[in-house]
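notes to self, project folder thing:

trying the whole complex as one job this time. last attempt i did each chain seperately and stitching them together was a nightmare. two parts in total, labels are on each line so i dont mix them up again. if this works i'll redo the older ones the same way
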Amino acid sequence: MLKVESLTKSYPTAAGEITVLAGVSFALAAGASLAVVGPSGSGKTTLLGLCAGLDRPSGGTVELAGEAIGGLDEDARARVRNEQVGFVFQNFQLIPTLTALENVLVPLELRGAGGAAAEAEARALLGRVGLAERAGHYPVQLSGGEQQRVALARAFVNQPKILFCDEPTGNLDGATAQAMVELVFGLNREKGTTLVLVTHDLDLAKRCQRILRLKAGRVSSDELGLPANHAN
Amino acid sequence: MTFILCMAWRDSRTARRRLALFSLSIVLGIAALVAIGSFGDNLRQAIDVQAKGLLGADVAVESRQPFSPEGRALLARFGGEQAQEISLASMVVFPGAGGQTRLVSVRGLAGAYPFYGEFLTAPSGGAALLARGDTAVVEETLLRQFGVKIGDPIKIGATTFTVAGALEKIPGEPAAVALLAPRVYVAQAALAATGLMGPGSLVNYKTYVKLAPRTDGEALAEILRPRFRDLRMRLDTVEQRKRELGSALSNVQAFLSLVGFIALFLGAIGVASAIHVHVRQKITTVAVLRCLGASARQSFGVYLVQGLALGLLGAVLGAALGVAVQLALPALVKGLLPFDVDFFVAWPTVLRGMLTGLVICGLFTLLPLLAVRRVSPLVALRSAFAGPAPGRDPWTYVIWAAIAAAVAGFAIWQTESWRTGLGFAGMLALSFGVLTGLARVVAWAARRFVPRRLPYVWRQGVANLHQPNNRTVLLLLSLGLGTFLLLTLALARETLLAEISTSGNGVRPNLLFFDIQDDQIGPLADLVAKAGAPLVAQAPIVTMKITSLKGRPVAELTRDATVRGPGWALRREYRTTYRAELTATEKLVAGTFTGRVAPDTAVVPVSLEEGIARDLQLAVGDELEFDVQGVPVKARVGSLRAVEWRQLSPNFFIVFPAGVLEAAPKFFVAAAHAASPADSTRLQQAVVQAFPNVSAIDLALVLSTLDGIFEKVQFVIQFMALFTVATGLVVLAGAVLSGRAQRVRETVLLRTLGASRRQLGQIQLVEYAALGLLASGAGGGLAYLANALLARYVFASAMAAPPGQLFAAMAVVTGLTVVTGLLANRGVTRQSPLAVLRQET
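result (full assembly):
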């Protein structure tokens, strides 16, 4: 599902070029889960961005759902994201001017699949995350946990093949975070989605089948988490 | 597309009121264009509908001489019905008003003029009121000014008339003509008895023709026009009058449209600035959309639709306001038009105004929107990626080029001249460049030179002018430009009027007597000397015409299409003087001035004013021939003079040396200096009483006439310039509101740190007062500079720059800025710190 080969990312600065990711390689089968962990500045988020096609690598390749996305232009990568990828961000990233339902509908509407069926789908997902009654609420009217649940419903609405989560519990308190984790893994299991999760939380990471540790932009270890039959 | 429209609508939810306010920035500009354009269409239709009333006849023929038999024969070719008018400038005496006098245009009517349109009088009756022969219809404003009533006597020349009616309206002339020369109508038969039509009197003979049915007057006029021209008679037809009026109207409309366009341009910059802030607040949303699969085109489309919708709203509101303003315009230009105007909405013009607004606003909106295309989806992961993408977007240059083309295109379209249109666009760019540069200097100076010892609220208020994301340049530009426009107009008026009013200072002449007969000059000089105001200057006047230039007869030159230069300069009657020396108002610029020649000189060396020499394409040494009342006189251009025409002094295009014209029939013009307005009035009354045919014009009359015209015209222009100032205030309000979120955060932080509401209010007061003062100071400074340049290079006079005008403008603009700023910021200091800080987390 996701194949990364010798991935490198550098940025030019006044002081010279800074390499934030150097020669990262791994492959992830469909339905598998991977946690990327490491200290701040180790290149976790950069790796996530490159894997999801949010940015172009300086070197190496990324193959997502069988398509090499490194060479695609921004709009082509946007199409891939819309068709194959779901996102959950640390700070939720709901669009503040849209209701919960409208936020969930955006990925479908972007591909021209709006209408009653899409709305029913979105409502069902909101129901699945326990927010059926809050469909008409705006992000500002929802708690942090509720906002993240809306974001999760949005991530799954286009039936992505792979879900990228960037510190999904980073802005949530303990109990809310736990509930969120259950939802992420529950939905992942139900939908058969591949999961890539960036986190500081080692307990959360251990729930993935595989843990990739990054240090100064390089893979310092690539280890198994929970066995596959326990992972989710 | 559905997604773009849907998302644009949904995304605007929390910003609709703010976006609507931004759209107001262009409302006034569009309103100005729509109002002027639609009113222009009203005027054009009025010209078409009332075409014949513009002249009062189908054809009019006029001449400075009584019509010759040949002229009368030509006139007879038109057939139909005819009416005659003889007009001349003269003094009218109001015996009932203490014998006060006033220079008027006396018109003697014979026949049934006007044939079309109405001769409106109070009481009604029009020309019939003159039937008795000893009655007069007098300009209504004149009767009011001198307190004269119907039935009162007035004296013109040697004749006393009874006022039979007040003149309200007559076809062919706007009421504003009364400002220049109030009209007094009498029966033509009675005019001869006044004794005013002596030699040298500036008499105009005019015949109006009502054509017989099915006569093609235009075709006939085209055939006869060259022959009338040869006879120095001017032919006017309804179509020609329509063309002239239409062309004058187009010029005025183009000028006012360009003034209105400045307001639109300014508003569009305001919109662009507001959209810039709006887009910056939306960068995360755009990044999320990109993460979710939106293409650059889709995310750009969402905000482009919002920008265009904003422009459309502004255009609709502007059009509505424009139509409302159009309703007010007839009252504004009352008296300036020679016809009545019916109101109607010219929809194509309204749509054109809206389209212009949309295009300009759309182009300016594109500039900040370009950033949307380059928002990285990574911003959703890390806000550190929200900075501007490296490198200049090449589309920026394309859009700036499109803006420049649109501005120049609009100006060329309005002025119908490539040169003027490009000149306008260039001047607009220059003034914006200068004001922007000035604004940057001011913002820099505010940062650099504010003393650290100032109280905190002062320093914080001024610091707001140069904090990151400030709107100082935009606001200085919009408010400064408005101040600049208004003040430049006011100062130009001051300069012109001051130049004229000072021309009568000291012992310079401030009273001019003309139409003095040869035998009257001596007694008149004695009379004014006895009255304590001896003549300062006097000049004999001999009338003559040019018959040939450089060996070619004038008749041949006027028919030669390859000869450039105005025909009037060839055909006119020259009122020429002779003297031995130059006067104080003249300066020799070429050749040698010959003061005296022998009476039998074969080729007389004459001196020409440089402007008329240019028109006649004559240089020193060129020969010309005059017809001096039947006697041919050969002459040569001996010298060229620069003449200060603004001085109330006898000035001439052509000056002969002494020794040649003394024996020719002549009359005199004389100038005197009256110590006070009362002396001037007394002197005029004494002269008119003793010499009824002599007319007088005093400086006070010239000044009040000019001031009256200025006031009327300036009011119309200032009305348009006010749109610019108002746009500046709307832009200010928009800028304040668009930065409100940032302002709330700062205010809350200050409150958290212990600032009182009073202190917060004072900070805002200092900020807006500083902004208003700097903007009006910059605009005012530029206006003074522009006025100095105008005075030097256009008016060629000393600049009048009363500081009161600048201080008044600065006070008004600063006051308006403070009020607008505080109003737009109201409620900011009442925000609960806790609520805001919680939102932040």
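what i see at first glance: The first helix of chain B runs from residue 2 to 11.
need to look closer tmrw
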